[in-house]
Amino acid sequence: MIVIKTTKRVHNAKQRVGNFALTTTGPSCLKVTHSSFPGTSMKLLPKELLVKTGPVDHADWNYSPILGPISRTRFRAVRAMLVGKKFPRLLEMGYGSGVFLPELRSHTEELFGVDLHKFAPTVSAHLKKANMSAQLFSSDARFLPFPNQYFQCVVAVSVLEFVEDLDAVSREILRVLTPDGVLLVVTPGSSPILDAGLKLLTGESAKRDFGNRRKNLIPTLLRHFAVREERNVGLPFLPLYTALSLGPRPALAAVA
User: Fold this and answer.
1) Strands 135-138, 108-115: pairing kind
2) Which terminus of the chain has fewer CB atoms gathered within 10 Å of its CB, N or C?
3) With b meaning 16 or more CB within 10 Å and e meaning fewer, what string describes 18-47?
């Protein structure tokens, strides 16, 4: 049996994220509908509606007996940070096959998704089979096709560790995010033990997929955003994922 623990910290000034110093600020349809898992109300796109959009799109892992409970902890961490919230507009960056869009739909009036791949029409058709919709776009994250201050919430789950120029992407997120908006990020832990486990269970190589980007991800984000909440998922001594609720720093929000 896999037991995964989530620890939560709400940050005040002069606290830390992991090993990184920070300064924070205050602020249906029959069988093909969303799938729920025992003990949760998690809404994910059913496995039979998932489309493989690229070599690192592993949405099907969410339905694996072994990998599923681990993979879904990322979504549970985001959902926990969204409890009681509903935004006028929400954007998921790197939506992939759309597996998490049904859950996000519950937290917004208008749902958007952006990804590099060209499968938006196919994913949209599969969402329609699940009786839901989202406005999906194909775009480089450095050049988002949206007006300034358009979204109240941006979600990026296991996405930013693939980005080469995270400073540029962070500035673009700030541009489309409202001054009081929130960026929800989930990123995998960096450890030889975790990497060996990934290789053993999936045959995938963390070094090949992420390079050295994982260790630079949080420090880069902290140059642009202030942390509102942190959740570490996994064992106390070995976090599988770090989930962050981030807001624009006041000075940067004014510039954006």
Assistant:
1) parallel
2) N
3) eeeebebbeeeeeeebbbebeeeebbbbbe
Q: What is the mean pLDDT of residues 153-182?
A: 94
* Torsion over CA: 111, 114, 119, 121 (sign): positive
HSE (side-chain half, CA atoms, 13 Å) at 24: 21
pLDDT digits (tens, 9 = 90+) for 22-62: 333 333 322 223 343 334 568 999 999 999 998 888 888 88
pLDDT at site 170: 97
Can you tell me the distance from the alpha carbon of 45 to that of 109, in angstroms, rounded to the nearest whole number?
19
Q: Please answer whether residues 129 and 51 qualify as being in contact, where contact means their C-beta atoms are separated by less than 8 angstroms.
A: no
Domain, as residue range, for 72: 5-255
- Structural domains of the chain, count: 1
- The enclosing domain of 157 has a CATH number of 3.40.50.150
Q: Exposed, middle or buried: residue 12 (CB in 10 Å: 0-12, 13-18, 19+)?
A: exposed
Question: Is 148 in contact with 123 (CB distance < 8 Å)?
Answer: no
Q: Residue 23 has what DSSP assignment? A: -
Angle between helices 213-222 and 166-176 (to 10 degrees): 40
Pairing outcome for strands 238-248 and 177-188? antiparallel
Report the helix count and the strand count for the chain, using DSSP H and E: 8, 10
Residue 87 reports pLDDT greater than 90: yes
- C-alpha 211/C-alpha 144 separation (Å) is 25
Determine how many CB atoms are found less than 10 A away from the CB of residue 219.
15
